Here is the input.
Amino acid sequence: MKPQFAKKFEIECKPTGELVESIKIERSCDAYDFIMKNLYKSDVNIYESAHIILMNNKNVVIGYAKIGQGAINQTLVDTRIIAKYCLDTLACSVIFVHNHPSGDLFPSREDDALTNSLAEIGKLINVRLNDHIIVTDNNYYSYLTNGRL
Here is the structure.
């Protein structure tokens, strides 16, 4: 019988060279300010995209990453990729962010299901899901602030 071999993979989480403002995120409004300054520009009304904000044990931002970009009303989010970024950066907590180009801030059933999945995965890898924030060009919805996290 011929032996089978597995492939060796080396996947890295590399900094882009851009510096991240090391701010402490204590409230959802702090997160929204950071999001609109660093993650979304004019594209907030064009297509849906998802990002994470990675933080240390004092809720100071240590990095961020775009997780997915999709169509005008949806984007694919792979929770394994989020877990990888959290582990690679040794993040203690994370904020998940996505936009609704329609301007409707109300979370969908899919948004609720993803929030539950991220919270459960976070428990498994010991990374706290601090919030799930939905943004539009002039407002936001925070799961934490609305008592849903």
In short: The first strand starts at residue 49 and ends at 55. The chain has a mean pLDDT of 89.
